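Question: I have long wanted to understand how a fold can be written as C-alpha coordinates. Here is the record:
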Amino acid sequence: MARKETGRPTIFWPMAFIAFAVLGGSVKFRVAHPERIPARGAYVIAPNHYSEIDPVIVGMMVFRAGRNPRFLAKSSLFKIPVLGWFLRRSGQVPVERTAAAAAKAASPLSAAAELVDKQGIVIVYPEGTLTRDPDMWPMRGKTGAARIALEQGIPVIPIAHWGTQALMARYGKKINFFPRHPVDFAVGEAVDLSEFEGRPIDQPLLTAATEKIMAAITAQLETLRGEKAPVRRWDPAEQGQSETGRFHERS
Protein backbone atom coordinates (compact mmCIF):
# COMPACT_ATOMS: atom_id res chain seq x y z
CA MET A 1 0.00 0.00 0.00
CA ALA A 2 1.36 3.42 -0.95
CA ARG A 3 2.35 5.59 1.96
CA LYS A 4 0.75 8.95 2.64
CA GLU A 5 2.65 12.05 1.58
CA THR A 6 4.79 13.36 4.43
CA GLY A 7 5.32 16.94 5.54
CA ARG A 8 2.19 18.56 4.10
CA PRO A 9 3.28 22.23 3.87
CA THR A 10 0.85 24.80 5.24
CA ILE A 11 1.89 27.22 2.46
CA PHE A 12 -0.45 25.39 0.07
CA TRP A 13 -3.49 26.56 1.98
CA PRO A 14 -2.96 30.33 1.50
CA MET A 15 -1.89 29.66 -2.09
CA ALA A 16 -5.07 27.69 -2.71
CA PHE A 17 -7.17 30.36 -1.01
CA ILE A 18 -5.71 33.05 -3.28
CA ALA A 19 -6.13 30.96 -6.43
CA PHE A 20 -9.72 29.99 -5.70
CA ALA A 21 -10.62 33.51 -4.54
CA VAL A 22 -9.32 35.01 -7.78
CA LEU A 23 -10.37 32.32 -10.27
CA GLY A 24 -12.95 30.16 -8.50
CA GLY A 25 -15.85 32.10 -9.98
CA SER A 26 -14.35 32.09 -13.47
CA VAL A 27 -13.70 28.37 -13.92
CA LYS A 28 -16.09 25.44 -13.88
CA PHE A 29 -14.05 22.27 -13.35
CA ARG A 30 -15.34 19.16 -15.08
CA VAL A 31 -13.13 16.15 -14.41
CA ALA A 32 -13.54 12.73 -16.02
CA HIS A 33 -12.17 9.86 -13.91
CA PRO A 34 -10.84 11.84 -10.93
CA GLU A 35 -10.51 8.50 -9.11
CA ARG A 36 -7.46 7.80 -11.29
CA ILE A 37 -5.51 10.39 -9.29
CA PRO A 38 -4.15 8.30 -6.39
CA ALA A 39 -4.69 9.78 -2.95
CA ARG A 40 -1.40 8.35 -1.71
CA GLY A 41 2.06 7.59 -2.96
CA ALA A 42 4.53 9.17 -5.35
CA TYR A 43 3.91 9.56 -9.07
CA VAL A 44 4.35 11.91 -12.01
CA ILE A 45 1.40 13.84 -13.45
CA ALA A 46 1.95 14.65 -17.13
CA PRO A 47 -0.48 17.21 -18.66
CA ASN A 48 -0.72 18.92 -22.03
CA HIS A 49 0.24 22.61 -22.22
CA TYR A 50 -1.12 25.36 -24.45
CA SER A 51 -1.88 28.42 -22.27
CA GLU A 52 0.22 30.40 -19.80
CA ILE A 53 -2.44 29.88 -17.13
CA ASP A 54 -2.39 26.07 -17.42
CA PRO A 55 -0.20 25.50 -14.32
CA VAL A 56 -2.57 27.48 -12.11
CA ILE A 57 -5.65 25.61 -13.35
CA VAL A 58 -3.96 22.20 -13.26
CA GLY A 59 -2.64 22.97 -9.79
CA MET A 60 -6.14 23.91 -8.60
CA MET A 61 -7.57 20.67 -9.98
CA VAL A 62 -4.85 18.57 -8.34
CA PHE A 63 -5.33 20.36 -5.02
CA ARG A 64 -9.08 19.74 -5.24
CA ALA A 65 -8.19 16.05 -5.69
CA GLY A 66 -6.34 16.12 -2.36
CA ARG A 67 -2.70 16.32 -3.46
CA ASN A 68 -0.14 19.10 -3.13
CA PRO A 69 0.77 20.27 -6.65
CA ARG A 70 4.49 20.67 -7.27
CA PHE A 71 5.82 21.50 -10.71
CA LEU A 72 9.03 21.48 -12.65
CA ALA A 73 8.79 25.20 -13.50
CA LYS A 74 10.97 27.52 -15.59
CA SER A 75 13.52 29.24 -13.39
CA SER A 76 12.61 32.75 -14.56
CA LEU A 77 9.37 32.53 -12.57
CA PHE A 78 11.38 32.20 -9.36
CA LYS A 79 12.86 35.66 -9.95
CA ILE A 80 9.47 37.40 -9.84
CA PRO A 81 8.87 39.13 -6.48
CA VAL A 82 6.22 37.47 -4.27
CA LEU A 83 5.54 34.75 -6.87
CA GLY A 84 9.11 33.49 -6.56
CA TRP A 85 8.81 33.38 -2.76
CA PHE A 86 5.62 31.32 -2.97
CA LEU A 87 7.19 28.97 -5.51
CA ARG A 88 10.23 28.33 -3.35
CA ARG A 89 8.25 27.94 -0.12
CA SER A 90 5.84 25.48 -1.71
CA GLY A 91 8.59 23.22 -3.01
CA GLN A 92 8.32 23.93 -6.72
CA VAL A 93 11.36 22.82 -8.74
CA PRO A 94 13.19 25.40 -10.94
CA VAL A 95 14.36 24.25 -14.35
CA GLU A 96 16.84 26.13 -16.54
CA ARG A 97 15.86 25.98 -20.19
CA THR A 98 19.26 26.78 -21.71
CA ALA A 99 22.13 24.33 -21.66
CA ALA A 100 24.63 26.84 -20.24
CA ALA A 101 22.41 27.84 -17.33
CA ALA A 102 21.33 24.28 -16.65
CA ALA A 103 24.97 23.22 -16.28
CA LYS A 104 25.35 25.64 -13.34
CA ALA A 105 22.05 24.79 -11.66
CA ALA A 106 21.09 22.04 -9.25
CA SER A 107 19.58 19.04 -11.01
CA PRO A 108 15.76 19.20 -11.14
CA LEU A 109 15.81 15.40 -11.21
CA SER A 110 17.48 15.40 -7.79
CA ALA A 111 14.79 17.72 -6.44
CA ALA A 112 12.09 15.53 -7.94
CA ALA A 113 13.70 12.48 -6.31
CA GLU A 114 13.45 14.22 -2.95
CA LEU A 115 9.73 14.72 -3.49
CA VAL A 116 9.38 11.03 -4.29
CA ASP A 117 11.15 10.17 -1.04
CA LYS A 118 8.49 12.19 0.79
CA GLN A 119 5.74 10.39 -1.15
CA GLY A 120 4.88 13.58 -2.99
CA ILE A 121 3.88 14.05 -6.59
CA VAL A 122 5.52 16.12 -9.29
CA ILE A 123 3.74 17.68 -12.26
CA VAL A 124 5.90 17.67 -15.37
CA TYR A 125 4.90 19.18 -18.71
CA PRO A 126 6.54 16.75 -21.16
CA GLU A 127 6.40 19.32 -23.95
CA GLY A 128 8.59 21.65 -21.89
CA THR A 129 6.73 24.75 -23.07
CA LEU A 130 3.47 25.74 -24.76
CA THR A 131 2.77 23.52 -27.73
CA ARG A 132 3.83 24.92 -31.09
CA ASP A 133 1.15 22.91 -32.87
CA PRO A 134 -1.13 25.46 -34.62
CA ASP A 135 -4.24 23.57 -33.49
CA MET A 136 -2.93 23.13 -29.93
CA TRP A 137 -2.45 19.37 -30.05
CA PRO A 138 0.41 17.98 -27.93
CA MET A 139 3.70 18.32 -29.76
CA ARG A 140 6.92 16.30 -29.52
CA GLY A 141 7.77 15.63 -25.88
CA LYS A 142 10.96 15.95 -23.87
CA THR A 143 12.26 13.18 -21.68
CA GLY A 144 12.07 14.60 -18.13
CA ALA A 145 8.81 12.90 -17.11
CA ALA A 146 9.93 9.52 -18.45
CA ARG A 147 13.33 9.77 -16.78
CA ILE A 148 11.86 10.61 -13.37
CA ALA A 149 9.34 7.79 -13.63
CA LEU A 150 11.87 5.17 -14.73
CA GLU A 151 14.69 6.22 -12.42
CA GLN A 152 12.40 6.41 -9.39
CA GLY A 153 10.15 3.48 -10.30
CA ILE A 154 6.90 5.45 -10.05
CA PRO A 155 3.84 5.71 -12.32
CA VAL A 156 3.05 8.43 -14.84
CA ILE A 157 -0.57 9.64 -14.84
CA PRO A 158 -1.46 11.30 -18.18
CA ILE A 159 -3.91 14.19 -17.92
CA ALA A 160 -5.44 16.26 -20.71
CA HIS A 161 -7.41 19.45 -20.30
CA TRP A 162 -9.28 21.71 -22.67
CA GLY A 163 -10.83 25.13 -22.12
CA THR A 164 -8.13 27.25 -20.50
CA GLN A 165 -7.59 29.03 -23.82
CA ALA A 166 -10.93 30.80 -23.21
CA LEU A 167 -9.67 31.95 -19.82
CA MET A 168 -6.32 33.12 -21.20
CA ALA A 169 -5.29 32.91 -24.84
CA ARG A 170 -2.00 31.32 -25.80
CA TYR A 171 0.69 33.89 -24.91
CA GLY A 172 -2.07 36.24 -23.79
CA LYS A 173 -1.58 38.46 -20.74
CA LYS A 174 -5.24 39.11 -19.96
CA ILE A 175 -7.45 36.80 -17.91
CA ASN A 176 -11.03 36.68 -19.15
CA PHE A 177 -12.85 36.37 -15.84
CA PHE A 178 -16.36 36.49 -17.32
CA PRO A 179 -18.40 34.65 -18.30
CA ARG A 180 -17.55 31.53 -16.30
CA HIS A 181 -15.49 29.14 -18.44
CA PRO A 182 -15.78 25.35 -18.31
CA VAL A 183 -12.42 23.57 -18.24
CA ASP A 184 -12.64 19.86 -18.97
CA PHE A 185 -10.12 17.35 -17.66
CA ALA A 186 -9.63 13.72 -18.63
CA VAL A 187 -7.45 11.64 -16.32
CA GLY A 188 -5.95 8.57 -17.93
CA GLU A 189 -4.78 5.28 -16.52
CA ALA A 190 -1.11 5.10 -15.57
CA VAL A 191 1.05 4.75 -18.68
CA ASP A 192 2.36 1.22 -19.08
CA LEU A 193 6.14 1.61 -19.10
CA SER A 194 6.86 -1.98 -18.08
CA GLU A 195 8.65 -2.74 -21.35
CA PHE A 196 11.38 -0.25 -20.36
CA GLU A 197 11.96 -1.48 -16.82
CA GLY A 198 15.28 -3.15 -16.02
CA ARG A 199 16.95 -1.77 -19.16
CA PRO A 200 19.74 0.82 -19.36
CA ILE A 201 18.17 4.30 -19.31
CA ASP A 202 19.68 5.75 -22.46
CA GLN A 203 18.40 8.32 -24.95
CA PRO A 204 16.63 5.87 -27.33
CA LEU A 205 14.79 4.28 -24.40
CA LEU A 206 13.77 7.67 -22.97
CA THR A 207 12.59 8.84 -26.38
CA ALA A 208 10.41 5.74 -26.81
CA ALA A 209 9.00 6.02 -23.28
CA THR A 210 8.28 9.72 -23.81
CA GLU A 211 6.36 8.98 -26.99
CA LYS A 212 4.17 6.51 -25.08
CA ILE A 213 3.44 9.25 -22.52
CA MET A 214 2.64 11.80 -25.24
CA ALA A 215 0.37 9.29 -26.99
CA ALA A 216 -1.52 8.71 -23.74
CA ILE A 217 -1.99 12.45 -23.16
CA THR A 218 -3.11 12.93 -26.76
CA ALA A 219 -5.64 10.08 -26.48
CA GLN A 220 -7.22 11.78 -23.47
CA LEU A 221 -7.35 15.10 -25.31
CA GLU A 222 -9.04 13.45 -28.28
CA THR A 223 -11.87 12.35 -25.98
CA LEU A 224 -12.29 15.90 -24.69
CA ARG A 225 -12.23 17.55 -28.11
CA GLY A 226 -14.20 14.84 -29.89
CA GLU A 227 -11.76 14.73 -32.79
CA LYS A 228 -8.59 12.97 -33.86
CA ALA A 229 -5.15 14.46 -33.48
CA PRO A 230 -2.81 14.63 -36.48
CA VAL A 231 -1.11 11.34 -37.25
CA ARG A 232 2.33 12.99 -37.10
CA ARG A 233 3.19 14.88 -33.93
CA TRP A 234 4.34 18.49 -34.37
CA ASP A 235 8.12 18.85 -34.05
CA PRO A 236 9.48 22.42 -33.62
CA ALA A 237 12.90 21.41 -34.96
CA GLU A 238 11.36 20.25 -38.23
CA GLN A 239 9.47 23.55 -38.49
CA GLY A 240 12.53 25.72 -37.81
CA GLN A 241 11.04 26.95 -34.54
CA SER A 242 12.84 27.87 -31.34
CA GLU A 243 12.43 25.53 -28.38
CA THR A 244 11.64 28.48 -26.08
CA GLY A 245 9.90 31.82 -26.39
CA ARG A 246 6.87 32.87 -28.41
CA PHE A 247 7.19 30.87 -31.57
CA HIS A 248 4.98 33.12 -33.72
CA GLU A 249 7.30 36.06 -33.02
CA ARG A 250 10.26 34.29 -34.59
CA SER A 251 11.06 33.92 -38.25
